[in-house]
Amino acid sequence: MRRAQELAKQRLEQYHDTSEPPAEHSQVEPQGGPVLTLPEAPASVNVHVTIAGRKVQVTLRDSDEQRLLARLEALLQRFPVDTLEQDSTMPQTPVCAWHGAMKESTKAKGTWYCPAKMADGSYCKSRHPEKGK
Description:
Blueprint: H1 2-15, E1 27-28, E2 35-36, E3 43-51, E4 54-62, H2 65-78, E5 95-96, E6 100-101, E7 103-104, E8 111-113, E9 127-129
Antiparallel strand pairs: 1-2, 3-4, 5-6, 7-8, 8-9
């Protein structure tokens, strides 16, 4: 998120002097009277934020990229990232202290092993039982 904010600021500075004014809405007059047609948004962005404890996706659209980036920056400042927040629904994969990632055993569910082959042809003996077992 911090990188996105930096990029947004750079884009704002880039387009500050070169941005074009927003396109005017075209008027169409069918039988019932004048109807305002909305132009397609040439600039849009999606962002995931936590509002009232719920993760939601917010879509911002605009006809001007500079204005869109300013709105995005304001939104990101309003909903800062909680660095302590972790997704508790996703289990953490155990890591071998010497070789890195481990694989879950297909024979003993909840047991993880290191698939690394040693120089002598044997496999690493690192094992990790599932927490709570």
